[in-house]
Amino acid sequence: MKPHAEIAEVWPRDGRVRLVGHIHGHPAEGQWRLLLTRRSHAEQRLDYPAQVKGDRFEGELPVADLAAATGTAEAEAESETEALVGVEEWDIHLTDGEVELRAGRRLDDIHGKKKIMVFPEQRVRGIGVRPYYTVKDNLSLECRTGAST
Questions:
Q1: DSSP H or E stretch at residue 137
Q2: pLDDT 10s digits, 2-40
Q3: What SS3 state is found at 29?
Q4: pTM, whole model, 2 decimals?
Q5: CB 92 within 8 A of CB 35
Q6: Which residue did the predictor score with more confidence, 27 or 75?
Q7: Any idea of the CA torsion for 108, 109, 111, 117, to the nearest 10 degrees?
Q8: What contacts 117, CB < 8 A, 6 or more positions away?
Q9: What does the buried/exposed string (b/e) look like for 16-41 if buried means 16 or more CB atoms within 10 Å of the residue's CB?
Q10: Burial group, residue 120, by CB count within 10 angstroms (0-12, 13-18, 19+)
Q11: CA torsion, ordered 48, 54, 56, 59, to nearest 10 deg
């Protein structure tokens, strides 16, 4: 199995998403950060400190940052048109500056988490942000503009 950031806990509440897990298949030395990459605009990235002890990591990100980054791009694209419902996805990695480990949950023998595990949405400035598992059991974030889901 490829090295990755194995997610053990996801806590979406109080305007933040807190992630706890273990670094799997890669040495855990050095300074690590949570790295978010906007799927439709890979050059757009956000990063946050991660605390690492042994192979265990913990970090959190404010959903307001995602709402601001997503909302700004949406506003530029729409200019003066009526707000449309749109979805932007952000992929989560753990990085030490040299390697990027994809965040996901693969070691629990539960396949198809996308249809099983549903996390609550947090709304900020008209944008809903919620974590979700992809079809490959990676963890990503969905930012939904417009109408509430």
A1: none
A2: 999 999 999 999 999 999 999 999 999 999 999 999 999
A3: coil
A4: 0.88
A5: yes
A6: 27
A7: -40
A8: 132, 133
A9: bbebebbbbeeebeeebbbbbbbeee
A10: exposed
A11: -20
How many residues are there in the chain? Answer: 149
Q: What are phi and psi of 79, to 5 degrees?
A: 45, -105
84-97 pLDDT, tens per residue?
Answer: 568 999 999 999 99
What is the token pair recorded at 57? 């990591």
Question: Which run of H or of E encompasses 94?
Answer: strand 86-95
Q: Compute the distance between CA of residue 49 and CA of residue 70 in angstroms, rounded to an integer.
A: 21
Least confident of 57-61, 67-71, 144-148: 144-148
The residue with tokens 């978010």 is 36
Query: Residue 88: how many CB atoms within 10 A of its CB?
Result: 22
**C-alpha distances out from residue 16 to 87, 114, 125, 135, Å:** 19, 21, 14, 24
Kindly report, residue by residue over 87-135, the tens digit of the pLDDT.
999 999 999 999 999 999 999 989 899 999 999 999 998 899 999 999 9
